[in-house]
């Protein structure tokens, strides 16, 4: 049984357009993925594809005007609002994309220590600070007294010593120097090898392939493919979805083949396959209806042409 199962998750936001007209903007639909204990699943997609919203939906921290559909299960049991509250910061931890998640009124050492569940909090915090090259006096500072890079390292320290069974890292390393990036990635791998499940969110396919076991590819708020990381190799022929292949072939070492056009915005989504307007394989049938997710060769894809 997977540690985390996201099954056909959808998210919509309600907003007022005009004075009294309440409209619903569908931003995620058909999000499907799972994470097993001991495994790193990378979530890849361009800006606005729904990566952070997926993380927030799992943690139960979506804004108040959001409504959700589909199912999220943790340990085989549905993640209700009450369970999300009980597990958040304990069994399920987040390295948030924004450093604004730190409590501005609390010294950072105390914040990191409060996430330690087993062992000596001070010892654990100091070991984590040493690992991420944060000087000891940093523990007495408030978040506004940290540089952006230091704040990110504090967030990574906090999540990695939480002892969480599921760790969701939302772009954990942008702007950090290569040694710290390597340390973070190495530690995520170690946490997974010790039994945690990791959801590693990134828009950098190349860097996540170094550590991920599987990759989920997002496009315009939908999961288009879930594939073993090893399928991203050679000319990408083992990949199932044309968008995954396009991402792979756009990398410099794979020919730098550009993909023209842009991802559609929520509220302006095409009727059929969301990728059809940019897809070289698209046929009339692709525009007719949204393709379902199909199990294919140890992975899955949402494309009627995939084999
Ligand atoms: N509170 C909100 N109200 C309305 N739309 C929102 C809200 N939050 C996010 N969205 C929209 O939902 C979509 C997905 O956003 P999300 O933040 O999940 O993208 P992302 O993949 O994490 O992007 P990035 O790589 O830039 O972090 C975007 O189109 C975004 O504009
Ligand atoms: Ni994001």
Architecture overview:
- The structure is a single chain.
- The chain has 307 residues and is an alpha/beta fold.
- The chain has helices spanning 51-59, 81-87, 108-113, 121-131, 148-160, 178-193, 205-208, 242-249, 284-288; strands at residues 4-16, 22-35, 40-44, 66-74, 77-78, 92-95, 166-170, 197-202, 214-219, 222-228, 294-296, 299-301.
- The protein has 9 helices and 12 strands.
- The longest helix is centred in the middle third of the chain and has 16 residues, at 178-193.
- The model has no long low-confidence stretch (mean pLDDT 95).
- Bound molecules: adenosine-5'-triphosphate (ATP) and nickel (II) ion (NI).
- Nickel (II) ion (NI) binds at residues 51-52, 97, 170.
- It is a peripheral membrane protein.
- InterPro entries: AAA+_ATPase (IPR003593), ABC_Ni/Peptide_Import (IPR050388), ABC_transporter-like_ATP-bd (IPR003439), ABC_transporter-like_CS (IPR017871), Oligopep_ABC_C (IPR013563), P-loop_NTPase (IPR027417).
- It catalyses: Ni(2+)(out) + ATP + H2O = Ni(2+)(in) + ADP + phosphate + H(+).
Q: How many β-strands, per DSSP?
A: 12
Q: Please tell me the total number of domains.
A: 1
Widest β-sheet, arrangement of strands: 6-7-8-3-9-10-12-11
Q: Which regions have little confidence, pLDDT < 50, spanning 5+ residues?
A: none
How far apart the termini lie comes to 26 Å
Give, in order, the helices and strands: EEEHEEHEHHHEHEHEEHHEE
Please state the overall shape, judged from the principal axes of the Cα atoms: globular
Q: How many helices?
A: 9
């Amino acid at each position: 049984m997977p540690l985390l199962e996201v099954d056909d998750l959808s998210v919509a936001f309600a907003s007022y357009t005009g004075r009294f007209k309440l409209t619903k903007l569908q931003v995620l639909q058909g999000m499907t993925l799972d994470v097993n204990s001991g495994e790193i699943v990378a979530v890849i997609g361009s800006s606005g594809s729904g990566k952070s919203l997926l993380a927030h939906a799992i943690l139960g921290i979506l804004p108040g005007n959001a409504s959700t559909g589909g199912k999220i299960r943790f340990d085989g049991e549905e993640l209700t609002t009450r369970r999300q509250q009980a597990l958040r910061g304990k069994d399920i931890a987040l390295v948030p994309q924004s450093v604004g998640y730190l409590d501005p009124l609390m010294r950072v050492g105390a914040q990191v220590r409060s996430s330690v569940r087993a062992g000596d909090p001070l010892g654990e915090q100091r070991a984590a600070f040493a690992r991420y090259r944060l000087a000891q006096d940093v523990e007495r500072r408030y978040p506004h007294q940290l540089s952006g890079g230091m704040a990110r390292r504090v967030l990574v320290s906090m999540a990695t010593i939480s002892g969480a069974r599921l760790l969701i890292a939302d772009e954990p390393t942008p702007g950090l120097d290569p040694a710290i990036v390597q340390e973070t990635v190495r530690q995520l791998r170690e946490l997974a090898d010790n039994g945690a499940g990791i959801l590693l969110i990134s828009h950098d396919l190349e860097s996540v392939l170094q550590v991920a076991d599987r990759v989920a590819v997002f496009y315009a708020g939908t999961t288009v493919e879930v594939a073993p990381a090893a399928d991203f190799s050679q000319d990408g022929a083992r990949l199932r979805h044309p968008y995954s292949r396009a991402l792979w072939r756009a990398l410099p070492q794979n020919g730098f083949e550009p993909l023209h056009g842009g991802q559609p915005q929520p509220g302006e989504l095409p009727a059929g396959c969301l990728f059809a307007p940019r897809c070289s394989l698209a046929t009339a049938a692709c525009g007719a209806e949204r393709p379902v997710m199909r199990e294919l060769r140890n992975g899955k894809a949402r494309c009627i042409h995939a084999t």
